[in-house]
C-alpha cells in the first residue's frame, strides 16, 4: 500500500521506493527536475519524483550540452534540493564520465549518496554496461537506468536522435529494458523513444517507466522545470508543454521594479525604517 495519498498535493509523508513502484498500473507518476532549495521547496509533495538532473548544466550553467557537469556540481545541487524536499522521492543524475567503469561507478556513486542522502541515482547507459548497474545495486544503491535518447551520448551520436524507429532498434531497447529489470533496477527513464515502442516496453516490464518525449503510454512523465515554466527557450522540444510564460512574466516584473526605483516611488514611507 502506498505511503502517500493518491494526490501528492499537501503531502507531508515521504514517498518510498516501494510506494513509487506500486504506482505502476494504478496511478501515473509525476516527476519534475529541481536544482536548488528554493524550487525544491515549491515542488516538494506536489509531484512524486524530483530529479536533480544534469540538464542544469544547460539551463543554469549556460553550456551547450550536459557533458561538462562535474560530480562536485551535482553534489552541490543535490544537497540543496535534499535540504528542502522532504516528501517527494529524490533521484540524482550521475554525470558524464563518472561511471565509465565498475570501480569508478562504485566510488562516485557512493560519494554522491554519502554526501547527499538522495534516494536513488539515474544513469544513462546501454545494456553493454549492465555490470555497472548490477554492481551499484549489489552495494545497496537504488538505480534507474536511462535509455533511448541519451543526452550524454550526443557527441558520439552526432546530435539528439529519436529512438525506436525501426524493428531492430525497438528490439534492442526492449531487450535492454528487460535486462535492467532483471538486474534489479527499480524503474526506467525512457527519453525520446517513439510512443509505440515506449508503450510496448512499459507493458512488458513489472517496474515503472517514466517518459520524456516518449508518449502517454509510459507509467509516468517528467519535464525539465525551466522548460515547463517557460524560462528556458534555447531548445524547444516537441514534447514540452509550457504551463507558464515565466520569462515574460519575470521580465515585466523586473521592468516594473526598475521603473519604480527610477521614479522614486519605491521604496515608499511604509517600506522604509
From TrEMBL:
Binds 1 Mg(2+) ion per subunit. Its cofactor is Mg(2+). CDD domains: KPHMT-like (cd06557). Transmembrane segments: none annotated. The keyword Magnesium applies. GO terms for cellular component: cytoplasm. Belongs to the PanB family. HAMAP family: PanB. This is 3-methyl-2-oxobutanoate hydroxymethyltransferase. It comes from Helicobacter canis NCTC 12740. The lineage of its organism: Bacteria, Pseudomonadati, Campylobacterota, Epsilonproteobacteria, Campylobacterales. The gene is panB.
